[in-house]
TrEMBL record, chain A:
Gene: INTS11
Species the sequence originates in: Alligator sinensis
One BP annotation, GO: snRNA processing
Intracellular or extracellular location(s): Cytoplasm; Nucleus
Protein name: Integrator complex subunit 11
Keyword Phosphoprotein annotated: no
UniProtKB/TrEMBL annotation, chain B:
Localization (cell): Cytoplasm; Nucleus
A Gene Ontology BP annotation from the UniProt entry: snRNA 3'-end processing
UniProt-listed InterPro entries: Beta_Casp (IPR022712), Integrator_9su (IPR027074), Metallo-B-lactamas (IPR001279), RibonucZ/Hydroxyglut_hydro (IPR036866)
Keyword flag Phosphoprotein: no
Descriptive protein name: Integrator complex subunit 9
Any one GO CC term of the record: INTAC complex
Gene name linked to the record: INTS9
Gene source species: Alligator sinensis (Chinese alligator)
SMART domains: Beta-Casp
Primary location: cytoplasm
Length: 571, 600
């Protein structure tokens, strides 16, 4: 099972996947070999404790080390908001998160993990957030690559996704930005800084709803360097106790960040911020400008929503949504232009503050998706995550450019496709060497035939030379010889007839070895031809042609050739 | 399959394996014990060392007195220290395809190989190995380059001259291969040829061979290597540890079913127990400091020092040493301490769990925060202002021939209050101390070598059961100083094949099978015939394609049908292009049926 996410837009049963699609009767553990989590975002791991502890799954769960470190913290955060703040019951508990994490096996990048005798998985760097990975899943010579969320352009704190030319039978790619070709990152950054700066200058407050880990760090690095350069004094805050902790994860997992940060971390750790301080709830009512990073990122609950409600009424303020918002969230509503929001208790909230959207989420854009397909060279592509219309467009583009099948199944739909793998067998080195020892043929384009016998026993396949096969199985080889007499009218002496035959054959069979032996017989390859005078008619010579079963083609060809008689002119 | 042995040092190996069509170098260790024959390089002008008398031959000949100095009754070469390189003449090193590095101590000769032999291949190593290896090289280059010495000595290396010298110079081997240290540009260029790999990552070499690093438990990022094809498996075990220190535990299971296991890098002090040594280290340190003396610990900037600091972290408060300053002096001290904290994925389980909290995996972060441990790039600068005695100083180089340690030897050697504690096992401490004699300072020898001992080796071999073991000759006999200790050698059946420097071994290998793939179309066309119950045969006639050492069998192309024309210009038009092979004939002949058929 690839990822185990939750839907931010729902507060009922629909927020978790319907695991009865996997099995309706029987334990999930029996149906799943393993679970792979690509990164720590809740839409990829939010249902994990529900899945493993409430529905029930005891098999292995694979994720990278940073994901394993951060995932339980976000899950706990999510649980607190849902249970403690909203008072929901029938939700997973802290203990369940802990029990669930005990089933997690951490993987290194590029490590080949043998899940069982047949199944192996391998993680690749995906860039999207700290510890995000793409996975290659392989059985024998067939494989699937799953991207999770990825980013093909390096940003201020992470590197770009990379996969080798692994030629999977199927590539499952996210397509959140199926048709967007985003303008250069630098422009977006400048735009962002300009908007923040302007708002602060006119005394407004800027709210940036983020998830505690990920984009937040990138934007913090951006603002930190800007504040330093411009010598700005307005305070920047980061809400929730996670800040310090979150930045700590980045410091300890610095090997997962981009090259520049990794190279300079000894001198200056980019995640030690001077201008960004911890936020206190009371600060929200302070007069004067400020910038606040608050969680969660889609304004669906928690502190970001509280601050939003406080500041929404003032047109001097601004909210900047730096990422994608799922349908149903307040974030999605204000981004689609809604300015009157119905809050809990039928309260209507009028939004006067400026609403800005800046695509900072680190997903691959259309160009990036095409680039990844080019890198991996899959035989089939399957798109997930995104809007159907845009995905349809991308699908056509992929089919046109790469001539591979592209699928985009809806939820609950099953896609079937066929692979045609080669069959691996063991070849005896003797046979292989015999073939390769002949060296390259003068005409390289002419195919070279190899002859062998395939021994199939139980599940093993071995290709050996025919002789070895017989020997191994204790079988005696039979010799089957064909002998044929051809009558030729030729009054000359026997040896003269032989010479005529020899010259005739030599003239026709240019590519074959034709020998005239001292005992008066002729050898064409391994076919023997002898001539004797007819016992009754001296004008008739009898040609004896003898060949083995192996030379059946050449033997019958020679016989029919000789039956046509010898050309008159020769001799 | 052949093994070319380029180094005679069992813990600093350098071997080249020729396997199938690949040439693989396993480690390139640099034997630095040669440096012991040279005079120390003092950071600060030392009146004692600069006024040493030149060495004079017995017959009064003084032609060597510029090169050789008499110091404390020993003769030392007065020049920049030189190191003993791996053999470079045994085979053409430009033909080496890849170099596999097992740990940062075993890569110190890398710049000599990659920069001076025409090497054009790739080097594989884990990220911690590369980063810490870089630090070790940086420290080495730095400590030699900052004490420029114009003089180089070569006269003494002449074979005729060397014969006349006193021991140990007389017996020094391979002196003609001794070289000066490389430079930073060479280091950078060498390191740029490294490709980073992770544990259990399968790396294909030319489609012929697959290599995989496995955790070896000895140091951050240290690895053993599996070199295998579909049918043959060679395990290269170099510097492994079964003790629980900071690195990820050793992966033993993956070494099973090896045809050949090359075993190098065992403990250099098989009789010492590392845990006991650590205890002794702490006791001696505490005793010295309590009586007002200073402690000098010559060490490498990474490795055991992390464990020592961790022990001290737990020990100092209970031993009442909270106010004693600990100094770590190395040009790479800061980097080493910082780097140690970011390789969580390469650490043992306990340390990994700390990172999840998130807390730094090593407690030296706290020692630094509380100002108990201070680090400096050198004795110059800030250190001279902060320096308070009594104190504990960790600094390099363990050979006592270069680095900041030379200064402390000169400074503290005269007082019996002070103690020098040797923890690194690479150099004989008596030889290391030779040029500083007579010495008033106390010497304590607590070598900490966590690598496998012979008991662990025999357990390991029983566990993984390789068909053949290959090891340096030193491991096939008891140590020369303890010839009665027959337990201090490798004991296995069949007995190990041993090698020595500049030897070429032919490894006992019988390759019999190779993998080949049958295309599905060809597979469809095969007609299997059950010959015996459960055994089927099928005759295969197919076209063999070989590309990148991968073999594929394809359906033979159908012979082009000659156009059915009445005029046949050439009779051989209908000669078969390729002859499909007839099956071999065997089995019982149903004579009666045959006769009946003929009669019809």
């Amino acid at each position: 099972m690839l990822d185990c996410g939750m839907h931010m837009g729902y507060n009922d049963d629909r927020r978790f996947p319907d695991f009865s699609y996997i099995t309706q009767n029987g334990r999930l553990t029996d149906f799943l070999d393993c679970v792979i989590i690509s990164h720590f975002h809740l839409d990829h791991c939010g249902a994990l404790p529900y899945f493993s502890e409430m529905v029930g799954y005891d098999g292995p769960i694979y994720m990278t080390h940073p994901t394993k470190a951060i995932c339980p913290i976000l899950l706990e955060d999510y649980r607190k908001i849902t249970v403690d703040k909203k008072g929901e019951t029938n939700f997973f508990t802290s203990q369940m998160i802990k029990d669930c994490m005990k089933k997690v096996v951490a993987v290194h990048l590029h490590q080949t993990v043998q899940v069982d005798d047949e199944l192996e998985i391998k993680a690749y760097y995906a860039g999207h957030v700290l510890g995000a990975a793409m996975f290659q899943i392989k059985v024998g010579s067939e494989s699937v690559a799953y991207t999770g969320d990825y980013n093909m352009t390096p940003d201020r704190h992470l590197g770009a996704a990379w996969i080798d030319k692994c030629r999977p039978d199927l590539l499952i790619s996210e397509s959140t930005y199926a048709t967007t070709i985003r303008d250069s990152k630098r422009c977006r950054e400048r735009d962002f800084l300009k908007k923040v700066h302007e708002t602060v200058e006119r005394g407004g407050k800027v709210l940036i709803p983020v998830f505690a880990l990920g984009r937040a760090q990138e934007l913090c690095i951006l603002l930190e360097t800007f504040w330093e350069r411009m010598n700005l004094k307005a305070p920047i805050y980061f809400s929730t106790g996670l800040t310090e902790k979150a930045n700590h994860y980045y410091k300890l997992f610095i090997t997962w960040t981009n090259q520049k940060i990794r190279k300079t971390f000894v001198q200056r750790n980019m995640f030690e911020f001077k201008h960004i301080k911890a936020f206190d709830r009371a600060f929200a009512d302070n007069p004067g400008p400020m910038v606040v990073f608050a969680t969660p990122g889609m304004l669906h609950a928690g502190q970001s929503l509280q601050i939003f409600r406080k500041w929404a009424g003032n047109e001097k303020n601004m909210v900047i949504m730096p990422g994608y918002c799922v349908q149903g969230t307040v974030g999605h509503k204000i981004l689609s232009g809604q300015r009157k929001l119905e809050m809990e208790g039928r309260q209507i909230l009028e939004v006067k503050m400026q609403v800005e959207y800046m695509s900072f989420s680190a997903h691959a854009d259309a160009k990036g998706i095409m680039q990844l397909i080019r890198q991996a060279e899959p035989r089939n592509v399957l798109l997930v995550h995104g809007e159907a219309k845009k995905m349809e467009f991308l699908k056509q583009k992929i089919e046109q450019e790469f001539h591979v099948n592209c699928y985009m199944p809806a939820n609950g739909e099953t896609t079937t496709f066929f692979t045609n793998p080669n069959i691996p067998v063991d070849i005896s080195l003797g046979l292989l060497k015999r073939e390769t020892a002949l060296g390259p043929l003068p005409d390289a384009k002419k195919p070279k035939l190899m002859h062998g016998t395939l021994i199939m026993k139980d599940n093993s396949f071995r290709l050996v030379s025919p002789e070895q096969a017989l020997k191994e199985l204790g079988l005696a080889e039979h010799q089957l010889r064909f002998t044929c007499r051809v009558h030729i009218q030729d009054p000359r002496k026997e040896h003269e007839t032989v010479l005529r035959v020899y010259n005739h054959l030599k003239g026709i069979l240019k590519d074959y070895s034709v020998q005239h032996l001292p005992d008066g017989s002729i050898m064409v390859e391994s076919i023997l031809i002898q001539a004797t005078a007819h016992s009754e008619d001296q004008g008739t010579k009898v040609l004896l042609v003898s060949w083995t079963y192996q030379d059946e083609e050449l033997g019958s060809y020679l016989t029919s050739l000789l039956k046509k008689g010898l050309p008159q002119s020769t001799g | 399959m052949k093994l070319y042995c380029l180094s005679g040092h069992p813990t600093l190996p350098c071997n080249v394996l020729k396997f199938k069509s690949t040439t693989i170098m396993l480690d390139c260790g640099l034997d630095m014990t040669s440096a012991l024959n040279f005079l120390p390089l003092p950071l600060v002008q030392s009146p004692r060392l600069s006024k040493l008398p030149g060495w004079v031959l017995k017959d009064g000949n003084t032609f060597l007195d510029k090169e050789l100095k008499d110091c404390s009754g020993h003769v030392f070469v007065d020049s920049v220290p030189e190191f003993c390189l791996p053999e470079t003449e045994l085979l053409d090193l430009s033909t080496v395809d890849v170099i596999l590095i097992s740990n940062y101590h075993c890569m110190m000769a890398l710049p000599y190989i990659t920069e001076c032999t025409g090497f054009t291949g790739t080097v594989y190593a884990t990220e911690p190995t590369v980063q810490i290896g870089r630090l070790l090289m940086e420290e080495l280059v730095n400590s030699i380059e900052r004490v420029p010495k114009a003089q180089s000595a070569s006269l003494w290396k002449n074979k005729e001259v060397q014969r006349l010298l006193p021991a140990p110079l007389k017996d020094a081997v391979e002196v003609s291969t001794w070289r000066r240290c490389y430079t930073m540009p060479e280091v950078n260029s060498a390191l740029s040829k490294i490709q980073l790999v992770g544990y259990s990552q399968k790396i294909e070499l030319f489609g012929a061979v697959q290599v995989t690093p496995l955790s070896s438990g000895y140091a951050l990022g240290s690895s053993n290597w599996i070199i295998q094809s579909h049918y043959e498996k060679v395990s290269y075990v170099s510097g492994s540890s079964l003790l629980t220190t900071h690195p990820q535990p050793m992966d033993q299971a993956s070494l099973k079913n090896s045809d050949v296991l090359i075993l190098t890098g065992l403990t250099q002090i098989p009789t010492a127990n590392p845990d006991g040594m650590v205890g002794e280290f702490c006791n001696n340190l505490a005793m010295t400091v309590r009586s007002g003396g200073n402690v000098l610990v010559p060490c490498y900037p990474s490795g055991v020092i992390y464990d020592l600091l961790e022990c001290l972290y737990q020990y100092i408060d209970s031993a009442g040493l909270s106010n004693v300053p600990f100094y770590f002096i190395s040009p790479v001290a800061n980097s080493s301490l910082e780097f140690s904290q970011i390789f969580a994925e390469w650490l043992c389980h306990n340390k990994q769990t700390k990172v999840y909290l998130p807390e730094p995996p090593f407690p030296h972060a706290e020692l630094i925060q509380t100002n108990k441990l201070k680090h400096y790039p050198s004795i110059h600068g800030d250190f001279s202002n902060d320096f308070k005695q009594p104190c504990v100083v960790f600094t390099g180089h363990p050979s006592l021939r270069f680095g900041d340690v030379v200064h402390f030897m000169e400074l503290w050697g005269k007082s019996s209050l002070n103690t020098i504690i040797f923890t690194e096992p690479d150099f004989s401490y008596l030889d290391a101390l030779a040029p500083y004699q007579p010495l008033a300072m106390k010497c304590v020898y607590c070598p900490i070598d966590t690598r496998l001992n012979f008991i662990q080796v025999s357990k390991l071999l029983k566990e993984v059961q390789p068909l053949h073991v290959v090891c340096p000759e030193q491991y096939t006999q008891p140590p020369p100083t303890q010839s009665h200790r027959t337990d201090l050698m490798i004991d296995c059946q069949p007995p190990p094949m041993s090698y020595r420097r500049a030897e070429v071994l032919t490894l006992p290998f019988k390759r019999r099978y190779e993998k080949i793939e049958i295309m599905p179309e060809l597979a469809d066309s095969l007609v299997p015939l059950e010959i015996k119950p459960g055994i089927s045969l099928a005759t295969v006639s197919a076209v063999l394609h070989t590309k990148d050492n991968k073999h594929v069998l394809q359906l033979p192309p159908k012979p082009a049908q000659p156009p059915a024309s009445k005029k046949r210009k050439r009779v051989n038009d209908d000669l078969p292009e390729c002859k499909p092979l007839k099956p071999l004939l065997s089995g019982a002949i149903p004579v009666d049926q045959f006769v009946q058929a003929l009669e019809k």
